[in-house]
TrEMBL record:
It comes from the Bacteria. This is Phage head-tail adaptor. InterPro entries: SSP1_head-tail_sf. It comes from Rhodococcus rhodnii LMG 5362.
Length: 108
């Protein structure tokens, strides 16, 4: 198992000076994950746009209950959880105890 850190999403914690919702996360806590696939990045084809979106599929223990909007640190980089984890354990034949968590990081 590999080390990672998890910050659980707590929801909205109020509004900022401009009236925008402010989101909050719990403090980082260490977890162990099974592994992750190589990162895949997409870049805009427009000149002058420097934003890169990096996507990673993470394999984590189901019992860690990673949820949408949580955040994870893998190898020093912060990723946002996208959607609910994909759970292959909902059948009577094969239950690996792992879920697939889709992660995203945006740079630029």
């Amino acid at each position: 198992m590999l080390p990672a850190s998890l910050a659980r999403y707590l929801g909205e914690s109020g509004r900022d000076d401009y009236g925008n919702d402010v989101e909050a996360w719990a403090p980082w806590s260490p977890i162990r994950v099974f592994g992750w696939e190589p990162a895949k990045s997409t870049e805009p084809v427009l000149v002058g746009h420097e934003r890169i979106v990096i996507a990673v599929k993470l394999y984590a223990r189901k019992e860690d209950r990673i949820g949408e909007h949580d955040r994870l640190i893998l190898e020093g980089r912060v990723y946002d959880v996208v959607g609910e984890p994909e759970d292959p354990n909902n059948n009577p034949w094969f239950q690996p105890g792992l879920v697939t968590v889709n992660l995203r990081r945006v740079e630029g």
